[in-house]
Amino acid sequence: MSMGERHQSLPSTGSQPLSTTRTAETVSRLRCISCGANPDSAGQDFRCTTCGDLLEFFFPGWTYGPDAFNPPAFDPATLKSLWLNRRTSGDALDQSGVWRFRELLPRIPDPEEHVITLREGNTPLYHLPRCARAVGVENLYAKHQGLNPTASFKDTGMTVAASSAHQGGFRWVACASTGNTSASMAAYAARGNMLSLVLIPDGQISWGKLSQSLDYGALTCQLRTDFDGCVRILNDLVRQKPVYLLNSVNPYRIEGQKTAAIELMEQLAWEPPDHIIVPGGNLGNSSAIGKALVEMREFKLISRLPKLSIIQAQGANPFYRSVREFGGKKLEPMTADTLATAIRIGNPASWKKALRVLQATGGEVEQVSEVEIAAAKAEIGADGIGCEPASAVTLAGLKKLRRSGFVKAGEGVVLILTGHLLKDPDFTIKFHRGDLFAGTGDAADVAETKHLQRAPVVLDADLGAVIAALDGTERNS
Ligand code: F0G
After folding, report:
1. Which residues does 301 contact at the CB level (< 8 Å), separation at least 6?
2. What are the E-state strand segments in 170-248?
3. Which of 217, 313, 392, 462 has fewest C-beta within 10 Å?
4. Is the pLDDT confidence value at 292 over 60?
5. 64: CA distance to ligand 1 center in Å?
6. How far apart are CA 31 and CA 54, in angstroms?
7. Stretch 190-199: mean pLDDT
């Protein structure tokens, strides 16, 4: 089949039968976030044809307008018990922690064989007792999105967007990535029997992520540029070739990623925490979580909004600067640089969406240094959880928000951990060996992280040497 051809017969995407428990059709429409245009469908680049800004889904049936009360198809209590009941179902759609919440998503691909699911979502909420003590808050939890099938939060959006590509009959899907989107896209494309094209910045993504897209069979192009350069090339490509764009400008991605917040509220018995803290890179995830919070309140699933705060690495902080220096009126792109390579992004696509949810929830934006990120990552690890560097900005940011008084001791806080510890073992090993900042300007600040370092100890194969090491550690602990 040539690239432009559509699938003749589409493959089955799961061994188990898909849901027969569909209850109602969700009516969703597209809307431009700037000019409000309502296109019937999105173009190849998922941008408004009138003004060029991003599109989003909205659900006309849910609006509680000033003049009309337009009740949704379900009352909140019915929805909550429906979603809970699906957890006992053997049905593939119900087993997905994304499609389980399908009443709050765009319409399920029809027929349902188009749905590509790896049973994503269903991620745990962990208490972080040591981190809580270190930060000085009583209730500190982590929702670990790194425990998704490809070990990052991207899978929750990818199941929805890749299924939409499948329904559209696309042969090729593509993304620009700092490594996690590409890993996720490659996996879902493979499951759906589609071909995938990955554009990644040469030498700037971790081996763990690169190895995933190779194994899942993507055409992986390492471009001699940064992430923002990869995005530019991809945008030009989709205008010329019939490839389906799977970056988070694709509003289906945002809809799927909303379910992290819905699942979190369910885990908290629909009692919202005071704060939710997320890392900010391209700003799709914060937009998605914020959108879910606003919709859940509109839908009366929760009674109040948590404050959603967004944390960036200091070397990749265009959104922080936009809010702090320009009051959110403009965003100046920058050349980004951080060891947290997942969020090494200088021109975030979804900054206007993120700004809107920041304002709607009353959240804060913060930036954290490289040393603060490394220390926070080791502290999350020491709670037995672990995450990749970009996720650790959440704890580092929380420390600053606590010091500034924005977060109070008695308040409940949930960190969204976005990627698994094993995504970037190089960073972790270098940190514990004390090599991470060697030869950099940060080397001087590293002394304060010494107590967190656990370098491997090389010993002779001798019982006495092992006992001496054990006793030495015992004395110092
Ligand atoms: N954390 C991790 C582990 C990520 O991979 C990313 C983004 C983010 C946080 C930031 O999320 O972009 O929605 O604000 N990774 C993208 C990628 C850019 O290509 O994998 P965001």
Report:
1. 76, 79, 80, 262, 265, 270
2. 172-176, 195-201, 219-223, 243-245
3. 462
4. yes
5. 33
6. 9
7. 98
CA distance 22 to 222: 42
C-alpha of residue 342 to centroid of ligand 1, in Å: 5
pTM of the model: 0.93
**What integer pLDDT is reported at residue 72 of this predicted model?**
54
Residue whose CA is closest, atom 20 of ligand 1? 180
Q: How confident is the model at residue 250 (pLDDT cuts 50, 70, 90)?
A: very high
Three-point CA angle 334, 338, 343, nearest 5°: 75
Q: Give per-residue pLDDT as tens, 95-120.
A: 999 999 998 999 887 788 999 999 99
Angle at 141 between CA 431 and CA 122, to 5 degrees: 100
What is the DSSP code string of 241-293?
A: S-EEE-STTSHHHHHHHTHHHHHHHHHTTT---SEEEEE-SSSHHHHHHHHHH
Instruction: Give the residue whose CA is nearest to atom 12 of ligand 1.
Output: 282
In ligand 1, the atom with minimum distance to the C-alpha of 180 is 20
- Hey, what are 455's tokens? 């370098």
User: Distance, CA 180 to ligand 1 centroid (Å)?
Assistant: 7
